[in-house]
Amino acid sequence: KSFLNHTAYLSCYFPNSQKTDIKDLIVFWQKEVEVVYEVYFGQEKHDHLSPKYINRTKMDMDKWTLQLLNAGIVDEGQYQCVIQHNDRGSTKVMHTSVCSLHIIANYSQPEIAGLHTGKLKPNEYLNLSCSSSGGYPKPEGMIWLISHENTTRRLKRHMDVSQDAVTKLYNVTSKLNDAVPTNTPTNISCLLLLGEQLGSLVSMPLGI
User: Given 40, 55, 74, 104, which residue has the most CB atoms within 10 angstroms?
Assistant: First the structure.
């Protein structure tokens, strides 16, 4: 995983138990049919590189890790590392591995906005929206939390999702239409669910 526009670190997982010198190896990385990085016997080569990776890669030969600078959403996918050994004039594959890259962009803190005008009357329906923007990947959903006295209701509502055609970042909005008890103070928040590993984001509570 790498944050958008940061450096991604792709590991080759090469133990190099024989302590082979880099000058005896050919190392290359590829993504599908695109060549991402090449080292021939200790020297970087740029002849076959896909144009989008030129001046964007560095290899840490001690850790056998490729650094991909300014990682973008288009860089997501599977990368294959291949290491070949030159042994008495013939090259043999010593090691191959695959590394998957996933890009993360932070969503803005969800914000609640009122869609109604004027003062609420008893037993009226509250009409709210909650929005968050500029994130990646697509979130799992949005939950509304309605708390009054010692109880909290969790309401899952439809989430509208739009993706920017250029940046590929997502904007999300959910709407709540719910009768709120007017005789007790009530707090309403919305929770953006980003997935098991990324957790969630909560809005500032709206007090009614």
Answer: 104
DSSP codes joined into one string, 184-206: S-EEEEEEEEEETTTEEEEPPPE
CA distance 42 to 101: 26
State how many domains the chain has.
Answer: 2
pTM of the model: 0.79
Give per-residue pLDDT as tens, 44-92.
887 888 888 888 998 888 888 999 999 999 999 999 999 988 777 778 8
Buried b (16+ CB within 10 A) or exposed e, 49-85: beeebeebbebeeeebbbbbeebbbebbeebbbebbe
The CA-atom distances, in angstroms, between 101 and each of 47, 121, 200 are: 24, 52, 21
According to DSSP H, which parts of 28-166 are helical? none
Task: Indicate the pairing of strand 90-101 with strand 77-87.
Answer: antiparallel
Whether residues 10 and 97 share a domain: the answer is yes
Q: What is the pLDDT of residues 183-205, one digit of tens each?
A: 778 889 999 999 877 888 899 98
Q: What are phi and psi of 53, to 5 degrees?
A: -105, 0
pLDDT bucket at 121, cuts 50 / 70 / 90 = low
Same domain, 94 and 123: no
Q: Is the domain of 199 the same as that of 121?
A: yes
SS3 147: strand
